[in-house]
Amino acid sequence: MKDVFILGIESSCDETSISIVKNGCVDVYTCVLTQMDTHAEFGGVVPEIASRMHTENITMVLEDVLTNSNISWDMIDAIAVTYAPGLLGSLLVGLEFAKTLALIHNKPLIAVNHIAGHIYANRLVEPIVFPSLGLVISGGHTELILMKGDYDFEVLGSTLDDSIGECFDKVARILGLKYPGGPNVEKYASMGRASYNLPIPMNDDSLNFSYSGLKSYIINLVHNEEQRGNEINKYDLAASFQSVAADELVRKTSLAIDKYNVKNIIVAGGVSANKYIRGELENLAKEKNIHISIPPMKYCTDNATMIAAAAYPLYKQKKFASFDINAKSQDDIY
Amino acid sequence: MKTLFIDTHSERLDIAIITDDKIFNKVVTGNRNHSEIAIPTLVEVLNCASLELKDIDQIIVVNGPGSFTGVRIGVTIAKTIAYSLNINIKTITSLEALGVSTSDNFDVIAIRDPKGVYSAIYRENSFKDYTYQSSSAFASFIESNNYKVSENTINDYIKIIDYAKKIELTSPHKVNPLYIKDIEVLK
């Protein structure tokens, strides 16, 4: 069978990325241009600045990919782009860029959901076996998803308030740690002991999550200690928070494994770059004797490789987008 | 000479192909999102002209000031075409495009948005002193200088192409929006 090459484009937040992926699973070449240093000055992603930088950089990122991939346009079968969810202004730059390329080179356009991208990042490592239980953990999502086939998703549970990634960022801010918050909380946690007694986020048997209570508890704890003139041990508090947050993921994932009797779990999203959480989920899989798939670090954060990978099943199903497709800040994958 | 003109700086989306003897254009006004209509409109204009993008000799894109998102849509499309097909590209500001298009006699060309006014002073055939100010500040600026103002909103493609002759070519990578208005965090 002829190889399928898909050019993927990702611009939903603060990374401008373009990638060429073969047959939905081989990363031929990927360029990721991150704006992290710029946004760090403001303590978080500034949407308007992100949009401006995507516009400034996107053709240069393409030039890098065309120069270094050894792939010519006549070999490319389709153009895939993230259309949702994310920052609207940022998504629009990638989307208009993708439509223009599709028009110029007469290629089909494939609209990819960013969360599906995170899930299909696992195909870059190994084939996805169905049914699989997907755990999507990121700045915008905390979800348990049952995958019965390609793009056959059933949401089993999700966060009722904050996502786990948001919670990491907010805890980082309370502790006075710099942006990006998540990796800094992880760094501090690795040097501390889980000595603070924190409440379990959602002590029930549902498959839903809740992280706002844990966040509020930590905010109050820090304020109260400050008022009493006591010093907070940032390392220990970060370790305690990370431990409770991870336990909750493990506990709910474990409940879902038992309830749906799955033999495979897939972890996806930016928070899966957290080494402690990866470790805890790997322990769970070992204990339950099931297979776990977690993408390597470079495919956990935002990248176009996963977008091109996620586009492959859509290419096979000939699910192409038309030129009037719009970007959406929110959209479901099911 | 076949020129592709793209202007998405306001609610009025304007795409045209100007050949030596004909103009093919489509203007869309109203509430629909530019991202939904920009490429379909471009396709429609190309079809009307029976041309493909590779037949275009030069691109003139309006790079603002105006709607940030609107300008980015036009600029992204234009620079992507210019880069991919190695077509000459020039940027013209929205105030220049509208200023050269009007037959009004004016000292200041202005574009309003919901919160204020973008303007430039027209002197010795060029546009200078780009600013963005509140409507009231703009009104007193005009009054105190006794300026004549034009708020033309219609592009005259032939006049724009003629004016663009004196504009230097830009590398597609360097084609970027002109925002004028600073965003909150940068103030």
Which features characterize this protein?
heterodimer, A: 334 residues, alpha/beta, Nucleotidyltransferase, domain 5, 2 domains, five-stranded mixed beta sheet, 11 helices, 10 strands, 43% helix, B: 187 residues, 5 helices, globular
What does the model show?
The complex is a heterodimer of chains A (334) and B (187). With 334 residues, chain A is an alpha/beta fold. Chain A folds into two domains: 5-121 and 299-316, 2-Layer Sandwich (Nucleotidyltransferase, domain 5); 130-294, ATPase, nucleotide binding domain (Nucleotidyltransferase, domain 5, 2-Layer Sandwich), CATH 3.30.420.40. Chain A contains eleven helices and ten strands. In chain A, a hairpin with a 4-residue loop joins strand 6 and strand 7 (142-149). The longest helix of chain A has 27 residues, at 234-260. The radius of gyration of chain A is 20 Å and the shape is globular. Chain B has a five-stranded mixed β-sheet, with helices on both faces. Chain B is α/β, with parallel strands linked by helices. In chain B, 33% of the residues lie in helices and 28% in strands. The mean pLDDT of chain B is 96. The N and C termini of chain B lie far apart (44 Å). Chain B has helices at 34-49, 68-85, 94-101, 135-145, 157-164, and strands at 3-7, 13-18, 23-28, 58-62, 88-92, 108-113, 116-123, 126-134, 149-150. Chain B has a single domain (3-186), classed as 2-Layer Sandwich (Nucleotidyltransferase, domain 5). In chain B, 39% of the residues are buried. In chain B, helix 1 crosses helix 2 and helix 3 (94-101) crosses helix 5. Chain B is built from five helices and nine strands; from the N terminus they run βββαβαβαβββαβα. The chains are: A alpha/beta (334), B alpha/beta (187). The interface between A and B is medium-sized, with 31 and 30 residues.
